[in-house]
């Protein structure tokens, strides 16, 4: 699959402000960890070479596996709801309300500049029992072609922005923008206690395909794997909010439970 394109203009603006496919493993009846598979846009073959050894994180950041997580801690019938690109003062509260209404916990993959601009939203996400994920400072989908020093700054600066905005709660995962993982970025994130995080179902809600299309994508593709990708920023997310209101109860009716990505 190609990388996210529908939100490219917004991400460009975030990059300027910051200055500085569903690609899954062969389908089986039971989801597995898919240890070296991509975050959704890159094949395992794209992750090659030997990374440099990144500087380890602080003493409170226990190392986690460097492989890209897809599985759910709820097992074969678990689903991980992941929300990218926020927080946003308009749409994040609405997403939080839907999750609250259905008793669902999610993982919010936050852009560093957004977290810094809206610390109240970061704190609200944490207070509601959701988990945090580092989605870099400026959402550069080409960062896998940039120097390791650039990758390090994007990841570690965002980690600090999110941690500061949350009041001290660290991100537990790292999701590369558009799946732009490298061996180095995975090693670096893991050394800071952030498990690289992929996805199995790309709803493409950033393209505004319509609520019905978003819902249909989830229903069609959830059998491929448990980690579902939505967005709460980067444009009008009314369709996402409406789709979540349909998708969450449907998943429960199908016998799925909601969990977090494995660590």
Rounded to an integer in angstroms, the radius of gyration calculated over CA atoms is 17 Å
Order of helical and strand elements: HEHEHHEHEHEEHEHE
Considering DSSP H and I runs of 4 or more, what fraction of the residues is helical? 25-40%
Counting DSSP E segments of at least 2 residues, the number of strands comes to 8
- Average pLDDT metric: 83
Spatial gap, N to C terminus = 26 Å
Low-confidence stretches: 1-60
Number of helices: 8
Largest sheet: 8 strands, parallel
Class of secondary structure makeup: alpha/beta
Strand % is 5-15%
**In one word, what is the shape?**
globular
Label this structure with key terms.
263 residues, alpha/beta, 8-stranded parallel beta sheet, globular
């Amino acid at each position: 699959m190609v990388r996210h394109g529908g939100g490219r203009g917004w991400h460009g603006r975030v990059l300027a402000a910051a200055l500085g496919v569903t690609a899954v493993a062969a389908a089986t009846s039971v989801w597995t960890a898919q240890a070296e598979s991509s975050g959704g846009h890159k094949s395992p073959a794209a992750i090659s070479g030997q990374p440099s050894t990144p500087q380890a994180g602080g003493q409170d950041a226990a190392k986690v596996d460097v492989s890209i997580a897809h599985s759910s801690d709820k097992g074969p019938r678990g689903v991980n709801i992941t929300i990218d690109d926020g927080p946003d003062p308009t749409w994040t509260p609405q997403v939080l309300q839907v999750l609250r209404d259905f008793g669902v916990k999610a993982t919010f993959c936050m852009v560093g500049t957004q977290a810094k601009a809206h610390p109240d939203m970061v704190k609200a996400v944490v207070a509601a029992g959701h988990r945090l994920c580092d989605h870099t400072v400026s959402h550069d989908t080409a960062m896998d072609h940039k120097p390791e020093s650039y990758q390090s700054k994007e990841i570690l600066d965002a980690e600090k922005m999110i941690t500061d905005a949350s009041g001290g709660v660290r991100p537990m995962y790292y999701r590369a923008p558009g799946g732009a993982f490298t061996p180095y970025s995975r090693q670096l994130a893991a050394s800071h206690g952030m498990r690289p995080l992929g996805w199995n179902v790309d709803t493409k809600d950033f393209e505004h395909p319509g609520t019905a299309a978003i819902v249909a994508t989830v229903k069609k593709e959830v059998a491929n794997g448990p980690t579902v990708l939505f967005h709460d920023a980067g444009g009008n997310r009314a369709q996402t909010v409406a789709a979540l209101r349909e998708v969450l109860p449907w998943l429960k009716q199908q016998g799925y439970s909601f969990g977090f990505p494995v660590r």
